[in-house]
Specification:
alpha+beta; 20% strand; six-stranded antiparallel beta sheet; 12 helices
Length: 423
């Protein structure tokens, strides 16, 4: 084109200066066109999507990401399930959110005299933290089993995955009070077997682990272990020697989980309100829903591990004297026939042991106790001990021995049983 332009220009009687300007102009136009072509090629190359699995972890990832990062991917989970996230209500630290029940996913709040719906979005970790001890124990057992095959855990907002390299072999999920385990096995291969499962091929985020097992009993745990072994054999996963770990998280209330962003609150309504009105409404609703009293079993499951350990040690000691236990709404009693010799109670984070001993007999001793003779339901076991340390456990055992001697109860050596987790 430059040559053609030169011929055209030279064929006409132009001055030398004019010809030079025309040639420079044509060259500049050609340069601009070349730059545009190069930019278009580079843009197309950058637009090519990365071929990376949308649900599998990277091979080099070896640490569990923080839940701040996991929360950022929550909208992707909703998109896969066909749910559009609503406007989130952010509660500042320092605000008190009363516990509203672990399985509640939605509720109603009153804003300017109108009833408005709010959705509670719990992360996998929040659901696990607020689950009962039976679920935690089964999760703990199966997670240890999976890790024995040299798999690594990785937590997202809605699941926990166990993987090796780029391949995910199992996932945990919690919905309500049910623990689900998803395995990388073809359901149709086990269609005529004894195992109960659901085929979830149709759910995109579980397409790599399409066999869903509901873990609701000890039998379900045994079957899950058998299927894990079958999966390991299919993919050539080898076992490794490792010490079992305790993956049961301690219970935490909803206040702390909301502040830590492990639970999110969303508006399920298009009503326009200020942020302050939404915060006040949500908090009022949660407080209203928390007025129900807590049973002894619920309090025990939510207690810190130190309280559970003291409880387990003293329960073992009481059972060595031939006592039987019975759990009521507010207590756990230890008895023989129609005579009650001891009771446990939990108030807040305090464990109390009540014994059928006369407080007046121990008035000038080293023991620290309280006389509960005036409380009718503790009249038969009036000596109350607060169990909060190793020393208080030792003193409680001494007083249990005194009780056994007084009532003619014979102590029998029994193996220690772990009662820290209710099954």
């Amino acid at each position: 084109m430059v040559a053609f332009s030169s011929v055209l220009i030279c064929g006409i009687q132009w001055t030398a200066a004019t010809k030079a300007l025309l040639i420079v102009g044509v060259c500049l136009i050609l340069l601009a066109v070349s730059c545009l072509l190069v930019m278009e090629i580079i843009g197309k190359r950058n637009a090519v999507p990365q071929t990376e699995s949308d649900s599998e972890p990277r091979a080099e990832e070896s640490e569990t990401p923080s839940f701040a990062e996991a929360a950022a991917s929550a909208d992707e989970d909703y998109a896969e399930e066909g749910i559009l996230p609503e406007q989130e209500v952010l509660l500042e630290e320092g605000l008190v959110v009363e516990d509203d029940g672990e399985t509640a996913d939605a509720g109603f709040v009153i804003v300017n005299g109108e009833r408005v719906k709010v959705r509670y979005d719990r992360s996998f970790e929040a659901r696990l933290i607020q689950s009962d001890d039976a679920l935690k124990s089964r999760y703990n057992e199966l997670k240890n089993e999976l890790l024995c095959y040299d798999l690594k855990p990785r937590v997202s907002w809605s699941n926990e995955s166990c993987y090796s390299g780029r391949t995910t072999y199992a996932k945990f999920a919690v919905r309500g009070k049910t623990l689900s385990l998803y395995l990388a096995l073809e359901p149709k291969e086990f269609a005529e077997s004894k195992y109960s499962f659901t085929d979830v091929h149709g759910v995109s985020k579980y397409k790599g682990v399409p066999m869903r097992l509901k873990i609701k009993s000890d039998r379900a745990v045994r079957w899950a272990k058998e299927l894990i072994a079958a999966m390991a054999e299919k993919y050539g996963l080898h076992t490794i020697q490792r010490e079992a770990e305790n993956f049961r998280p301690e219970y935490r209330d909803t206040t702390s989980l909301v502040i830590q962003r492990l639970i999110k609150l969303y508006l399920a309504s298009d009503k326009e309100c200020t942020d302050e009105e939404w915060e006040d409404a949500v908090i009022s609703d949660l407080k209203l829903r928390d007025r129900a009293p807590r049973e002894f079993l619920t309090r025990l499951m939510r207690s810190p591990i130190a309280l559970k350990t003291n409880y387990s040690e003293l329960k073992n000691e009481l059972l060595r004297y031939g006592l039987k236990c019975r759990m009521s709404k507010s207590n756990e009693s230890y008895y023989i026939r129609h005579v009650t010799y001891a009771k446990f109670a939990i108030r807040g984070k305090n464990l109390s042991l009540y014994l059928a001993l006369a407080p007046s007999q121990f008035a000038d001793t080293k023991y620290i106790f309280k006389d509960e003779s005036g409380v009718s339901k503790y009249a038969a076991v009036p000596l109350r001990l607060r169990i909060s340390s190793a020393r208080s456990v030792r003193w409680a055992k001494e007083l249990i021995f005194a009780l056994g001697k007084k009532e003619g109860l014979h102590r029998t050596e029994l193996p220690e049983t772990d009662y820290r987790y209710v099954k």
